[in-house]
Amino acid sequence: MTADTTPPIATREHTVDGFVREFLRELNFGQGVDLTRASANDKYLAMARTVRHYLMTRWLSTLRRQGQLQAKSVAYLSAEFLLGRQLDNALLAADLQDIVREGLASLGIDLDELREEEVEPGLGNGGLGRLAACFIDSLATMNVPCIGYGIRYEYGIFRQTFVDGWQVEKPDDWLRLGSPWEFPHPESAVTVSFGGSVEQYQDDDGVVKRRWVPGWSVQGVPYNYMVPGYENGRVNTLRLWSAQATRAFDLQIFNAGDYAEAVRAQTFAENISKVLYPEDSTPQGKELRLQQQYFFVACSIKDFVDQVLPEDFDLHDLPERIVFQLNDTHPVIAVPELMRVLVDEKGWDWADAWSVTQRCFAYTCHTLLPEALEVWPVDLLGRLLPRHLEIIYRINDEFLAELREAYPDDELRVRRMSIIAEYPVRAVRMAYLATVAGTKVNGVAALHSQLLRDKVLDDFAGYWPDKFTNVTNGVTPRRFLRLSNPGLSTLVTEAIGDGWVTDLDQLRGLEPLADDAEFRRRFREVKHANKLRIADVLAHRDGITVDPDTMFDVMVKRLHEYKRQTLKLLHIVSLYEKVSTGKLAIGDVTPRTFAFGAKAAPGYVMAKQIIGLINAVGATINEDPALEGRLRVAFPANYNVTLAETLIPAADLSEQISLAGKEASGTGNMKFMLNGALTIGTDDGANVEIRELVGDENFFLFGLDEPQVAELVDRGYHPSAYYETNVDLRHALDLIASGAFSGGDRTVFEPIVSNLLNEDRFLALADFQAYVDAQAKVDAAYADPEAWTRSAVLNVARGGFFSSDRSMRDYIDRIWHTPPVPPA
Ligand code: T68
Fold first, then answer.
1. Were both Cys, which of 338, 452, 773, 792 would link to 443 (CB 3.0–4.6 Å)?
2. How high is the ipTM of this complex?
């Protein structure tokens, strides 16, 4: 018998007493306070650290096993991970919810109160960042090796406040009270360089080569986060990088006696990971942003090659060991970086390096808006990353040569496909670089992928038809059903067992219950309880009162013209106008609470105007005694993941009303469906698939479809024609223009009105009547609670497809080919 030399890993006692002992130890020895003097934050931190201990054994053994097996992994490269609060998810994964609640209660502490202490890490703007968080949750739950790589922003997405109804941004200093979920590893810091120049030299064999002589460097310090699978013993890793000044840099300047300059240099370096750019879908082309992008991918590649892989690993086998998934174009500079590492640092020849690189990357596109496709002017890129620009030029030269062979008589096409744009300035088109370098390119919903192939990247799809694929987005059922909607979770589990938590297709088992009156009664009871819950949150968090006996009509998403919050607003204003002029009896209005949640990018003037208008209309309606109990607008500030978790389960109606052909997918739409809301929506993004699954009779479709939009725009769109011919629309717009919502001042919202009348890029006026008609159908349907509930139950039952576990299966089958690795 050979002795087992593997060192043991500590475990924890899964009992109430065991937990209490650990908790008190953390409180006393970790926080340095005793229970009687502990603040809520002390208790929260101690509890969080105790909970993470319970996941530690699994984390260490996951890492150990991966070290032994060297199984193929996914490296998910994303500038954003919008994680949301961590505590509940950790409790769920470790199956500790009851133990912790009971243990804390025995000490006179209420778990729910401590949960409120957690500040969510808002390290993302919206859908793209939240998708990344759902994906890593699913991979851990499905036992797939994955490492998430991103940036540890010191300030996440800004905290939104309203002053007189206008958005005012406040910094999100989420780290202020301590961050118990992260594990810093300064000893594993890596160095990343920028600037300088490229020089020619001869290697030992006399071959002329080029190499980068950088101008300055920073350090990337890794902070590790646990990504626990659901009750499966696996804990994957999310590694976020924080920028710091290099010690060498510091010392040099310190030694030169310039203390102030040394401190300035330090601040300069730390700026790189200081703040998340709050622009969603509109890249600004700022130098600091490119610094962030290069910073985190260079850290990640270095980390993977030098620290994760075993020392003797042959990099020719890299494509068998890793796939770098590019979450949009933000990490695409990783492509020339890997080439630089292989060619310049490892001394490979170009063709070998390109062959390996091409097999290591895959690219997900998240947009259709032309203005959202990132391009970097060559001036800027060449100044910051001169060697990378050379490498990009060479990739492009070889690609264009290949194209000229394929299309000898079509130089126009060759130029269209160039990675380098010539106009308005010479610039690198990052989406093209990603498409050329990736094994696969995917869109995020069926319609989106189709439009990518047919419109945005049509030349590429013609050249490489097999490169293009679709993976429809999904959301994690752990966070967005099991945790966020305990009432519905319990009801579902009682009906079909709890297998749905990891196999969401099992929700199909609920279909027959849509016809069961008792089940429907209980379903309504849950919805009502969820409304009471959000009413309580809104009262305490925002001082907003809402009536749980009204229909909850909810539109939550980033404020963007293409998403058409204005269309929703026109509907509300029109209703208000009709009631206040007596054209519509208040008794005939379905009582509704219109809930909004939306942040506008700080520099997006029109979006901020629209926020002002929503609040102004809301104030007018909410103050009107005639509308009391009938119409109400609730616009809580600072919509974030935490608020979503209570608001979505309370919704009756989900607003998904973007102009067809503009929303890549949407994921909020899926969360609403799974929580039993009916959708009013256009034929856009994943709405198309939602409607196919749930059936026309359980979905309120309206508006132009994508081909109709294209045709109308081609013909020449004139919004004023709709204003002139549609009385209701005219009255609504006139009411806004009259100053009725701005104390009589006609100038305040004039830009919105004139934009709609003269430009209306997203065809809100064209879809207005169809939208109002669909809302009338909503009213009629809601008037029959039994039929409505039946539809709501069917929405839940048919929503299983939208689990991010399914998305992950699709990525694995179509792109990654990374089999699961079950625990030992
Ligand atoms: C969203 N994109 C899509 N972008 O709009 C949405 N952009 O349809 C889709 O469901 C979601 O991605 C997930 O695929 C974004 O969220 C950004 O947040 C973003 C951030 C920085 C720069 C550009």
1. 452
2. 0.98
